[in-house]
Protein: DNA binding domain-containing protein, excisionase family
Amino acid sequence: MLAGVKGATTTAQAGVAFPPHDLGALLDLARFLDLHAEPALLLGPDGEQVPLPEEVYRLLVEVVNSMRQGKIITLVPHTRRLTTQEAADFLGISRPTLVRLLEEGHIPFDQPGRHRRVLFTDLLAYQERRRAERRAALDRMTEDASEAGLYDARPEDYAAALKAARRRSAGTTAP
Structure:
C-alpha cells in the first residue's frame, strides 16, 4: 500500500498519494526505471527478494512518472462507491452538475439513505461514452469540412462555413 512509502504524503483510506516534498529520491527512482524496461525485484529489509509481476512493474512506472510531473495519484478499486463530491472531483465538474447528470439518468447511482452513491465503473463508462460522442462529433465536422472543400479554403471561407454549421446545429437558418 502506498501509505507505507517513506517520504510520500498519503491519505491511505482514500487511496491518494501526493508527490513527496523532496523529489530527489523520486527522480533517482525515475532514472532507474527509465534504464530498465524489464520488471525488477522487490528487496525487503531482511534481504528477501520477490519478483514484481509485469502489471505491478508497469503500474509503478506510471505512478513514478506521474508523481515526477507533480501529479497526485489515486488508486480506486473499480467496485468502489463514491460520494457525489468524489465523483464530481473525478470528472472535474461541480457537484451540482454531477447531481444534474445523475437525475437526468446519464450516470446510474444508488441512494441507500439520504446520500447518493456512484459506482466508479459507472463513472468510467460515462467518461468513455462522452469521449466517443466527442470523437463522433469531430469526425462529422471533419467530414463536413472536407465535403465543403474547406481544407483548401481561405480563412474567411472557413469562418463563414463554421458560422453556417453552428446555425444548422442550433436549428436556426437566419443569416
Observations:
- DSSP finds six helices and seven strands in the chain.
- The chain has a mean pLDDT of 82.
- The CA atoms of residues 92 and 98 lie 10 Å apart.
